[in-house]
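Methods — Computational structure assignment.
A single polypeptide chain was analysed. Its primary sequence is given first, followed by the predicted tertiary structure written as structure tokens.
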Amino acid sequence: MGELCISPIGLSMITKLSAGKIVGLMMGLWFLGSAIAEYIAALLAGNSSAEQLELTQHQSFTLLYTDIMWIAFAGAALTLVLTPLLKRWMWDVD
């Protein structure tokens, strides 16, 4: 659901904010970012295997969602830090 909600908005902003000559490249980078995120999700899911870590399933999922929580907090902090800079760069975009 997150991908379905974010993708149209992100692609729209890429076409608005990119220079005309590199719009295709920037859209490719958007999809590369999605691919990297899916790869990281697969790594997290693979690392949550209870048999591999010799943990109960509950402990395994607790570790998984704790990792996801810290990744989300880091992303939110980075977004908060970069927001003023991004707003300055977008001053003429509606």
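Note: The two ends are 26 Å apart (CA to CA).
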